[in-house]
Protein backbone atom coordinates (compact mmCIF):
# COMPACT_ATOMS: atom_id res chain seq x y z
CA UNK A 1 0.00 0.00 0.00
CA UNK A 2 2.81 2.33 0.89
CA UNK A 3 4.70 2.05 -2.34
CA UNK A 4 1.50 2.41 -4.31
CA UNK A 5 0.80 5.60 -2.48
CA UNK A 6 4.01 7.28 -3.50
CA UNK A 7 4.23 5.78 -6.92
CA UNK A 8 1.20 7.76 -8.04
CA UNK A 9 2.96 10.99 -7.14
CA UNK A 10 5.45 10.77 -9.98
CA UNK A 11 3.38 11.84 -12.95
CA UNK A 12 4.53 12.39 -16.47
CA UNK A 13 3.92 15.97 -17.38
CA UNK A 14 3.27 18.19 -20.31
CA UNK A 15 5.82 20.87 -20.94
CA UNK A 16 4.07 23.83 -19.36
CA UNK A 17 3.46 21.85 -16.27
CA UNK A 18 7.11 20.97 -16.13
CA UNK A 19 7.88 24.69 -16.07
CA UNK A 20 5.47 25.40 -13.26
CA UNK A 21 6.48 22.35 -11.28
CA UNK A 22 10.12 23.27 -11.61
CA UNK A 23 9.27 26.61 -10.09
CA UNK A 24 7.40 24.95 -7.26
CA UNK A 25 10.34 22.63 -6.64
CA UNK A 26 12.78 25.54 -6.66
CA UNK A 27 10.56 27.60 -4.38
CA UNK A 28 10.55 30.22 -7.14
CA UNK A 29 7.57 32.29 -6.09
CA UNK A 30 8.22 35.13 -8.52
CA UNK A 31 8.68 32.79 -11.47
CA UNK A 32 5.49 30.92 -10.74
CA UNK A 33 3.57 34.14 -10.29
CA UNK A 34 4.65 35.24 -13.76
CA UNK A 35 3.49 31.99 -15.32
CA UNK A 36 0.10 32.14 -13.66
CA UNK A 37 -0.41 35.88 -14.19
CA UNK A 38 0.33 35.59 -17.92
CA UNK A 39 -2.30 32.84 -17.84
CA UNK A 40 0.09 30.38 -19.30
CA UNK A 41 -1.18 27.95 -16.72
CA UNK A 42 -4.65 28.04 -15.21
CA UNK A 43 -4.69 28.46 -11.46
CA UNK A 44 -6.56 25.20 -10.91
CA UNK A 45 -5.14 23.29 -13.85
CA UNK A 46 -4.43 19.64 -13.25
CA UNK A 47 -1.76 17.26 -14.45
CA UNK A 48 -2.68 13.96 -16.04
CA UNK A 49 -3.22 12.43 -12.59
CA UNK A 50 -5.64 15.18 -11.65
CA UNK A 51 -3.23 16.95 -9.32
CA UNK A 52 -3.32 20.75 -9.09
CA UNK A 53 -0.35 23.08 -8.63
CA UNK A 54 -1.53 23.71 -5.09
CA UNK A 55 -1.48 19.98 -4.38
CA UNK A 56 2.05 19.68 -5.73
CA UNK A 57 3.19 22.65 -3.65
CA UNK A 58 1.51 21.24 -0.53
CA UNK A 59 3.15 17.87 -0.99
CA UNK A 60 6.56 19.47 -1.52
CA UNK A 61 6.15 21.61 1.59
CA UNK A 62 6.33 24.94 -0.22
CA UNK A 63 4.30 27.12 2.08
CA UNK A 64 5.05 30.42 0.31
CA UNK A 65 4.05 28.97 -3.03
CA UNK A 66 0.85 27.64 -1.47
CA UNK A 67 0.13 31.11 -0.10
CA UNK A 68 0.72 32.68 -3.52
CA UNK A 69 -1.60 30.19 -5.21
CA UNK A 70 -4.29 30.71 -2.56
CA UNK A 71 -3.95 34.49 -2.92
CA UNK A 72 -4.42 34.09 -6.66
CA UNK A 73 -7.60 32.16 -6.01
CA UNK A 74 -6.56 28.52 -6.09
CA UNK A 75 -9.26 26.21 -4.76
CA UNK A 76 -8.16 24.51 -1.50
CA UNK A 77 -10.63 21.73 -2.29
CA UNK A 78 -9.71 21.55 -5.98
CA UNK A 79 -8.18 18.75 -8.01
CA UNK A 80 -9.39 15.36 -9.17
CA UNK A 81 -6.59 13.12 -8.07
CA UNK A 82 -7.06 9.59 -9.31
CA UNK A 83 -7.04 8.29 -5.74
CA UNK A 84 -9.08 11.22 -4.50
CA UNK A 85 -6.37 12.75 -2.38
CA UNK A 86 -7.24 16.31 -1.40
CA UNK A 87 -4.70 19.09 -0.91
CA UNK A 88 -5.03 18.49 2.82
CA UNK A 89 -4.24 14.79 2.28
CA UNK A 90 -1.01 15.75 0.52
CA UNK A 91 0.00 18.22 3.21
CA UNK A 92 -0.80 15.70 5.95
CA UNK A 93 1.00 12.80 4.27
CA UNK A 94 4.16 14.80 3.83
CA UNK A 95 4.05 15.95 7.47
CA UNK A 96 3.79 19.65 6.65
CA UNK A 97 2.03 20.98 9.70
CA UNK A 98 2.12 24.63 8.63
CA UNK A 99 0.53 23.82 5.32
CA UNK A 100 -2.16 21.70 6.96
CA UNK A 101 -3.10 24.72 9.06
CA UNK A 102 -2.95 26.99 6.05
CA UNK A 103 -5.26 24.73 4.03
CA UNK A 104 -7.71 24.39 6.92
CA UNK A 105 -7.78 28.16 7.35
CA UNK A 106 -8.63 28.53 3.69
CA UNK A 107 -11.45 26.02 3.96
CA UNK A 108 -9.99 22.66 3.00
CA UNK A 109 -12.53 20.09 4.07
CA UNK A 110 -11.03 17.87 6.75
CA UNK A 111 -13.70 15.18 6.26
CA UNK A 112 -12.86 14.57 2.59
CA UNK A 113 -11.94 10.93 2.08
CA UNK A 114 -9.67 9.32 -0.45
CA UNK A 115 -10.36 6.23 -2.53
CA UNK A 116 -9.59 3.93 0.40
CA UNK A 117 -12.02 5.82 2.61
CA UNK A 118 -9.48 7.64 4.76
CA UNK A 119 -9.49 11.28 5.82
CA UNK A 120 -6.32 13.37 5.85
CA UNK A 121 -6.00 12.91 9.63
CA UNK A 122 -6.36 9.15 9.25
CA UNK A 123 -3.65 9.11 6.58
CA UNK A 124 -1.37 11.11 8.90
CA UNK A 125 -2.07 8.59 11.66
CA UNK A 126 -1.23 5.85 9.16
CA UNK A 127 2.21 7.33 8.53
CA UNK A 128 2.62 7.93 12.26
CA UNK A 129 2.55 11.71 12.39
CA UNK A 130 0.62 12.42 15.53
CA UNK A 131 1.21 16.18 15.54
CA UNK A 132 -0.55 16.45 12.22
CA UNK A 133 -3.42 14.25 13.40
CA UNK A 134 -4.14 16.34 16.47
CA UNK A 135 -3.80 19.61 14.57
CA UNK A 136 -6.40 18.55 12.04
CA UNK A 137 -8.71 17.07 14.68
CA UNK A 138 -8.59 20.26 16.72
CA UNK A 139 -9.05 22.70 13.89
CA UNK A 140 -12.07 24.94 14.26
CA UNK A 141 -13.06 27.47 11.59
CA UNK A 142 -13.24 31.07 12.80
CA UNK A 143 -16.77 31.27 11.44
CA UNK A 144 -17.96 28.69 14.00
CA UNK A 145 -16.96 31.08 16.76
CA UNK A 146 -18.08 34.24 15.04
CA UNK A 147 -21.57 32.82 14.88
CA UNK A 148 -21.83 33.72 18.56
CA UNK A 149 -19.81 36.91 18.64
CA UNK A 150 -21.55 38.75 15.82
CA UNK A 151 -24.73 40.57 16.90
CA UNK A 152 -27.76 38.87 15.28
CA UNK A 153 -29.41 42.26 14.57
CA UNK A 154 -29.49 45.86 15.72
CA UNK A 155 -31.68 45.29 18.76
CA UNK A 156 -30.00 42.11 20.02
CA UNK A 157 -26.63 41.83 21.58
CA UNK A 158 -24.18 39.11 20.63
CA UNK A 159 -23.63 36.27 23.07
CA UNK A 160 -20.03 37.39 23.48
CA UNK A 161 -18.41 40.74 22.58
CA UNK A 162 -17.02 40.53 19.01
CA UNK A 163 -13.64 41.66 20.33
CA UNK A 164 -13.42 38.38 22.28
CA UNK A 165 -13.72 36.20 19.16
CA UNK A 166 -9.96 35.79 18.48
CA UNK A 167 -9.32 34.93 22.15
CA UNK A 168 -12.06 32.32 22.24
CA UNK A 169 -10.89 30.89 18.94
CA UNK A 170 -7.39 30.53 20.31
CA UNK A 171 -8.72 28.84 23.43
CA UNK A 172 -10.86 26.24 21.64
CA UNK A 173 -8.03 25.34 19.25
CA UNK A 174 -5.71 24.25 22.06
CA UNK A 175 -4.40 20.75 21.50
CA UNK A 176 -2.97 20.21 24.97
CA UNK A 177 -5.98 19.41 27.16
CA UNK A 178 -4.19 19.41 30.50
CA UNK A 179 -6.32 21.65 32.75
CA UNK A 180 -3.24 23.53 33.93
CA UNK A 181 -2.29 24.36 30.36
CA UNK A 182 -5.85 25.49 29.62
CA UNK A 183 -5.95 27.67 32.73
CA UNK A 184 -2.60 29.22 31.87
CA UNK A 185 -4.01 29.94 28.42
CA UNK A 186 -7.08 31.67 29.90
CA UNK A 187 -4.84 33.70 32.20
CA UNK A 188 -3.17 35.24 29.17
CA UNK A 189 -6.50 36.23 27.58
CA UNK A 190 -8.20 39.05 29.55
CA UNK A 191 -11.10 39.15 27.11
CA UNK A 192 -11.91 35.60 28.16
CA UNK A 193 -11.43 35.79 31.89
CA UNK A 194 -13.32 39.07 32.13
CA UNK A 195 -16.32 37.49 30.39
CA UNK A 196 -16.24 34.01 31.88
CA UNK A 197 -19.93 33.35 32.26
CA UNK A 198 -20.58 34.41 28.68
CA UNK A 199 -17.71 32.26 27.46
CA UNK A 200 -19.23 29.37 29.36
CA UNK A 201 -22.61 29.88 27.66
CA UNK A 202 -21.05 30.06 24.21
CA UNK A 203 -19.07 26.87 24.81
CA UNK A 204 -22.29 25.14 25.82
CA UNK A 205 -23.98 26.29 22.63
CA UNK A 206 -20.99 25.18 20.56
CA UNK A 207 -21.15 21.75 22.15
CA UNK A 208 -24.88 21.41 21.44
CA UNK A 209 -24.50 22.75 17.95
CA UNK A 210 -22.00 20.03 17.00
CA UNK A 211 -24.65 17.42 17.77
CA UNK A 212 -27.35 19.14 15.74
CA UNK A 213 -25.63 18.68 12.43
CA UNK A 214 -27.36 15.47 11.44
CA UNK A 215 -24.98 13.30 9.49
CA UNK A 216 -22.19 15.80 10.06
CA UNK A 217 -22.55 15.66 13.85
CA UNK A 218 -19.14 15.70 15.46
CA UNK A 219 -19.20 13.89 18.81
CA UNK A 220 -15.54 14.49 19.44
CA UNK A 221 -15.72 18.24 18.99
CA UNK A 222 -18.89 18.34 21.04
CA UNK A 223 -17.06 16.56 23.86
CA UNK A 224 -14.15 18.95 23.61
CA UNK A 225 -16.40 22.01 23.89
CA UNK A 226 -18.15 20.40 26.84
CA UNK A 227 -14.84 19.73 28.56
CA UNK A 228 -13.71 23.33 28.06
CA UNK A 229 -17.07 24.58 29.31
CA UNK A 230 -16.78 22.41 32.43
CA UNK A 231 -13.45 24.04 33.27
CA UNK A 232 -14.63 27.59 32.56
CA UNK A 233 -17.77 27.01 34.60
CA UNK A 234 -15.75 25.98 37.65
CA UNK A 235 -13.73 29.16 37.56
CA UNK A 236 -16.82 31.21 36.89
CA UNK A 237 -18.50 29.72 39.99
CA UNK A 238 -15.43 30.41 42.10
CA UNK A 239 -15.61 33.98 40.92
CA UNK A 240 -19.19 34.33 42.13
CA UNK A 241 -18.28 32.87 45.51
CA UNK A 242 -15.21 35.05 45.95
CA UNK A 243 -16.02 38.44 44.46
CA UNK A 244 -13.17 39.92 46.49
CA UNK A 245 -10.52 37.95 44.61
CA UNK A 246 -9.25 38.52 41.07
CA UNK A 247 -9.81 35.86 38.43
CA UNK A 248 -6.07 35.51 37.97
CA UNK A 249 -5.72 34.75 41.66
CA UNK A 250 -8.55 32.21 41.58
CA UNK A 251 -7.04 30.50 38.56
CA UNK A 252 -3.70 30.25 40.37
CA UNK A 253 -5.41 28.55 43.29
CA UNK A 254 -7.04 26.08 40.94
CA UNK A 255 -3.72 25.35 39.26
CA UNK A 256 -2.21 24.56 42.67
CA UNK A 257 -5.09 22.17 43.30
CA UNK A 258 -4.43 20.35 40.05
CA UNK A 259 -0.74 19.98 40.81
CA UNK A 260 -1.27 18.60 44.30
CA UNK A 261 -0.57 14.92 44.70
CA UNK A 262 -1.65 12.31 47.20
CA UNK A 263 1.20 12.14 49.73
CA UNK A 264 1.21 8.33 49.73
CA UNK A 265 1.78 7.68 46.04
CA UNK A 266 2.12 10.95 44.16
CA UNK A 267 -1.18 10.50 42.35
CA UNK A 268 -2.87 13.77 41.24
CA UNK A 269 -6.27 12.91 42.66
CA UNK A 270 -7.97 16.27 42.27
CA UNK A 271 -7.01 16.47 38.60
CA UNK A 272 -8.16 12.93 37.93
CA UNK A 273 -11.51 13.39 39.69
CA UNK A 274 -12.04 16.67 37.89
CA UNK A 275 -11.67 15.06 34.48
CA UNK A 276 -13.79 12.07 35.43
CA UNK A 277 -16.53 14.46 36.48
CA UNK A 278 -16.16 16.43 33.26
CA UNK A 279 -16.65 13.23 31.27
CA UNK A 280 -19.59 12.01 33.36
CA UNK A 281 -21.46 15.28 32.85
CA UNK A 282 -21.30 15.14 29.05
CA UNK A 283 -24.97 15.64 28.20
CA UNK A 284 -25.06 13.44 25.08
CA UNK A 285 -25.19 10.10 26.82
CA UNK A 286 -26.36 8.15 23.76
CA UNK A 287 -23.18 8.82 21.79
CA UNK A 288 -20.69 6.05 21.09
CA UNK A 289 -17.88 8.18 22.40
CA UNK A 290 -19.53 8.70 25.78
CA UNK A 291 -20.31 5.03 26.27
CA UNK A 292 -16.79 3.99 25.31
CA UNK A 293 -15.25 6.58 27.61
CA UNK A 294 -17.36 5.41 30.55
CA UNK A 295 -16.32 1.80 30.00
CA UNK A 296 -12.68 2.81 29.63
CA UNK A 297 -12.88 4.96 32.77
CA UNK A 298 -14.06 2.07 34.91
CA UNK A 299 -11.29 -0.08 33.46
CA UNK A 300 -8.65 2.40 34.54
CA UNK A 301 -8.68 2.51 38.30
CA UNK A 302 -7.10 5.50 39.92
CA UNK A 303 -3.70 4.85 38.53
CA UNK A 304 -2.11 5.46 35.16
CA UNK A 305 -3.37 5.89 32.54
CA UNK A 306 -5.18 8.82 34.00
CA UNK A 307 -8.53 10.13 32.89
CA UNK A 308 -6.47 12.89 31.27
CA UNK A 309 -4.82 10.37 28.96
CA UNK A 310 -8.21 8.90 28.09
CA UNK A 311 -9.82 12.17 27.14
CA UNK A 312 -6.70 13.37 25.32
CA UNK A 313 -6.40 10.29 23.17
CA UNK A 314 -10.14 10.39 22.53
CA UNK A 315 -10.00 13.98 21.24
CA UNK A 316 -6.53 14.04 19.72
CA UNK A 317 -6.41 10.54 18.29
CA UNK A 318 -4.83 7.36 19.63
CA UNK A 319 -1.13 7.30 20.08
CA UNK A 320 1.51 4.98 21.37
CA UNK A 321 2.89 5.40 24.82
CA UNK A 322 3.66 8.98 25.63
CA UNK A 323 7.30 9.86 25.87
CA UNK A 324 8.61 11.06 29.14
CA UNK A 325 9.43 14.49 27.80
CA UNK A 326 6.38 16.50 28.78
CA UNK A 327 6.18 19.44 31.16
CA UNK A 328 5.56 18.30 34.74
CA UNK A 329 3.26 21.28 35.27
CA UNK A 330 1.11 21.65 32.19
CA UNK A 331 1.66 18.48 30.17
CA UNK A 332 3.05 20.29 27.11
CA UNK A 333 4.95 17.75 25.04
CA UNK A 334 8.53 17.70 23.86
CA UNK A 335 9.86 20.34 26.21
CA UNK A 336 13.60 20.55 26.70
CA UNK A 337 14.25 22.52 29.89
CA UNK A 338 15.04 20.61 33.07
CA UNK A 339 15.25 21.37 36.76
CA UNK A 340 18.90 22.35 37.16
CA UNK A 341 19.16 20.68 40.55
CA UNK A 342 17.93 17.15 39.88
CA UNK A 343 17.93 17.19 36.06
CA UNK A 344 15.06 14.73 36.23
CA UNK A 345 11.94 16.83 35.68
CA UNK A 346 11.07 18.77 32.54
CA UNK A 347 9.35 22.12 32.15
CA UNK A 348 8.29 24.51 29.36
CA UNK A 349 9.89 27.47 31.07
CA UNK A 350 10.54 29.12 34.44
CA UNK A 351 6.89 29.97 34.95
CA UNK A 352 5.91 26.32 34.80
CA UNK A 353 8.83 25.41 37.04
CA UNK A 354 7.84 27.99 39.66
CA UNK A 355 4.29 26.70 39.77
CA UNK A 356 5.54 23.16 40.38
CA UNK A 357 8.23 23.99 42.93
CA UNK A 358 6.09 23.58 46.07
CA UNK A 359 5.39 20.00 44.96
CA UNK A 360 8.73 19.23 43.43
CA UNK A 361 10.95 20.52 46.24
CA UNK A 362 9.95 17.51 48.34
CA UNK A 363 11.47 15.05 45.92
CA UNK A 364 14.11 17.10 44.11
CA UNK A 365 16.90 16.00 46.48
CA UNK A 366 16.05 12.34 46.16
CA UNK A 367 15.86 12.58 42.37
CA UNK A 368 19.14 14.47 42.27
CA UNK A 369 20.90 11.60 44.04
CA UNK A 370 19.37 9.07 41.66
CA UNK A 371 20.46 11.18 38.74
CA UNK A 372 24.06 11.42 39.97
CA UNK A 373 24.19 7.65 40.22
CA UNK A 374 22.85 7.34 36.71
CA UNK A 375 25.25 9.90 35.36
CA UNK A 376 28.26 7.97 36.60
CA UNK A 377 27.01 5.05 34.55
CA UNK A 378 26.23 6.94 31.37
CA UNK A 379 27.61 10.36 30.58
CA UNK A 380 24.76 11.78 28.57
CA UNK A 381 22.71 14.78 29.48
CA UNK A 382 21.56 16.34 26.26
CA UNK A 383 18.84 18.61 27.55
CA UNK A 384 19.81 22.02 28.74
CA UNK A 385 19.00 22.70 32.37
CA UNK A 386 16.73 25.57 33.38
CA UNK A 387 19.42 28.10 34.01
CA UNK A 388 18.47 29.86 37.21
CA UNK A 389 17.64 28.24 40.53
CA UNK A 390 13.95 27.98 41.22
CA UNK A 391 12.61 30.57 43.61
CA UNK A 392 11.82 29.07 46.99
C1 LIG B 1 10.94 29.92 -0.13
O1 LIG B 1 11.03 31.29 -0.47
C2 LIG B 1 10.57 32.20 0.51
C3 LIG B 1 10.65 33.61 -0.03
O2 LIG B 1 9.90 33.73 -1.19
C4 LIG B 1 11.38 32.04 1.78
O3 LIG B 1 10.90 32.91 2.80
C5 LIG B 1 11.32 30.59 2.25
O4 LIG B 1 12.14 30.42 3.39
C6 LIG B 1 11.73 29.65 1.14
N1 LIG B 1 11.47 28.27 1.58
C7 LIG B 1 12.36 27.30 1.42
C8 LIG B 1 11.93 25.95 1.90
O5 LIG B 1 13.45 27.47 0.92
C1 LIG C 1 5.41 15.17 11.46
O1 LIG C 1 5.09 16.53 11.25
C2 LIG C 1 5.95 17.42 11.92
C3 LIG C 1 5.40 18.82 11.81
O2 LIG C 1 5.36 19.27 10.50
C4 LIG C 1 7.33 17.28 11.33
O3 LIG C 1 8.22 18.19 11.95
C5 LIG C 1 7.79 15.86 11.54
O4 LIG C 1 9.04 15.65 10.90
C6 LIG C 1 6.79 14.85 11.00
N1 LIG C 1 7.16 13.55 11.48
C7 LIG C 1 7.07 12.44 10.73
C8 LIG C 1 7.42 11.16 11.40
O5 LIG C 1 6.71 12.47 9.57
C1 LIG D 1 -33.85 39.33 19.57
O1 LIG D 1 -34.50 39.82 20.72
C2 LIG D 1 -35.88 39.58 20.72
C3 LIG D 1 -36.51 40.28 21.93
O2 LIG D 1 -35.57 40.61 22.90
C4 LIG D 1 -36.16 38.09 20.76
O3 LIG D 1 -37.54 37.82 20.76
C5 LIG D 1 -35.53 37.47 19.53
O4 LIG D 1 -35.64 36.06 19.57
C6 LIG D 1 -34.03 37.83 19.46
N1 LIG D 1 -33.49 37.35 18.21
C7 LIG D 1 -32.38 36.66 18.12
C8 LIG D 1 -31.95 36.26 16.75
O5 LIG D 1 -31.72 36.35 19.09
C1 LIG E 1 -11.63 2.71 24.80
O1 LIG E 1 -10.68 1.65 24.86
C2 LIG E 1 -10.63 0.86 23.69
C3 LIG E 1 -9.69 -0.29 23.94
O2 LIG E 1 -8.50 0.12 24.55
C4 LIG E 1 -10.17 1.73 22.50
O3 LIG E 1 -10.11 0.97 21.31
C5 LIG E 1 -11.16 2.87 22.33
O4 LIG E 1 -10.72 3.72 21.30
C6 LIG E 1 -11.31 3.65 23.63
N1 LIG E 1 -12.35 4.63 23.41
C7 LIG E 1 -12.35 5.83 23.96
C8 LIG E 1 -13.44 6.76 23.56
O5 LIG E 1 -11.51 6.18 24.77
C1 LIG F 1 -20.22 41.60 29.85
C2 LIG F 1 -18.78 41.74 30.20
O1 LIG F 1 -18.38 41.39 31.28
N1 LIG F 1 -18.01 42.26 29.27
C3 LIG F 1 -16.58 42.46 29.48
C4 LIG F 1 -15.79 41.55 28.55
O2 LIG F 1 -14.42 41.89 28.53
C5 LIG F 1 -14.17 43.21 28.13
C6 LIG F 1 -12.69 43.42 27.96
O3 LIG F 1 -11.97 43.14 29.12
C7 LIG F 1 -14.78 44.16 29.17
O4 LIG F 1 -14.50 45.49 28.80
C8 LIG F 1 -16.27 43.92 29.21
O5 LIG F 1 -16.85 44.70 30.23
ZN1 LIG G 1 4.57 23.76 31.07
ZN1 LIG H 1 14.58 19.11 40.72
Automatic annotation (TrEMBL):
It is found in: Cell projection, Cilium. GO terms for cellular component: cilium. The keyword Zinc-finger applies. PROSITE patterns: ANK_REP_REGION, ANK_REPEAT, ZF_MYND_1, ZF_MYND_2. Transmembrane segments: none annotated. Pfam families: Ank, zf-MYND. Keywords: ANK repeat, Cell projection, Cilium, Metal-binding, Repeat, Signal, Zinc, Zinc-finger. Gene3D superfamilies: 6.10.140.2220, Ankyrin repeat-containing domain. Residues 327-364 form the MYND-type domain. It comes from the Eukaryota. InterPro entries: Ankyrin-MYND_dom_contain_2, Ankyrin_rpt, Ankyrin_rpt-contain_sf, Znf_MYND. GO terms for molecular function: zinc ion binding. Residues 1-16 form the signal peptide. ANK repeats lie at residues 49-81, 83-115. This is EOG090X06BA.
